[in-house]
Amino acid sequence: MQQFVVPQFIDVEDKILGPITTRQFLILLVAGIIIFLAYRFGDFWVFVSTLAIVGGLALIFSFVKINGQPFHYFILNILQTARKPGLRIWNKSYTKDELEFLRKAGTEKVAPSPKEAKKAGRRHIRDLSLIVNTGGYYSGANGLQRENNKMPNNLPK
């Protein structure tokens, strides 16, 4: 049987200069070039503003991690979340053509009427929490049940 080497630590970036990774080095290099061009060809205040804005963004994108992810992944996640709704609801409604096709096929499906959601009262929530906390021994209106003496005897009846 042939053996293969399985790569480990694939989420750790390669370091090129001390603790600086390739991605961080390239970001800082591009920012340094932009700042140098502003120093060389721009006014003093253009240089200072470019230094503050571009340098600050370069440091943030290079070194800041949020929840263990690089900052640019965090920004991408924010943009994707803003574009997509958090709650997706699928309401299937048949067109006349689809209904006609289903009738001909003999598999006419009737869309169920929307049911109203039941309101959960305090007593119902309390009973559910007791069922969960007792591992299913509590059964609502009947109280606690002891099956095969699995429950300790010191519990209230």
List how many beta strands DSSP finds. 4
Alpha-beta content class: mainly alpha
Which consecutive residue ranges, at least 5 long each, have pLDDT under 50? 144-149
Task: Bin the strand percentage.
Answer: 5-15%
> Count the helices. How many?
5
Q: Roughly how many Å is the radius of gyration?
A: 32 Å
Portion of residues in helices? 40-55%
Name the strands of the widest sheet in spatial order: 1-2
Order of helices and strands, N to C? EEHHEEHHH
Q: What is the end-to-end distance? A: 63 Å
Q: What kind of sheet is the major sheet?
A: 2 strands, antiparallel
Q: What average pLDDT do the residues reach?
A: 81
Task: Tell me the overall shape.
Answer: elongated
What can you tell me about this protein's structure?
This protein has 157 residues and is mostly helical. The protein has a domain at 15-83. Helix content is 48%, strand content 6%. The protein has 5 helices and 4 strands, in the order ββααββααα. The chain has helices at residues 22-41, 44-63, 71-83, 96-105, 122-133; strands at residues 15-17, 20-21, 65-66, 69-70. The strands form 2 sheets. It has a two-stranded antiparallel ribbon. Strands 3-4 form a two-stranded antiparallel sheet. Strand 3 and strand 4 (69-70) form a beta hairpin. The protein is elongated, with a radius of gyration of 32 Å. The two termini are 63 Å apart.
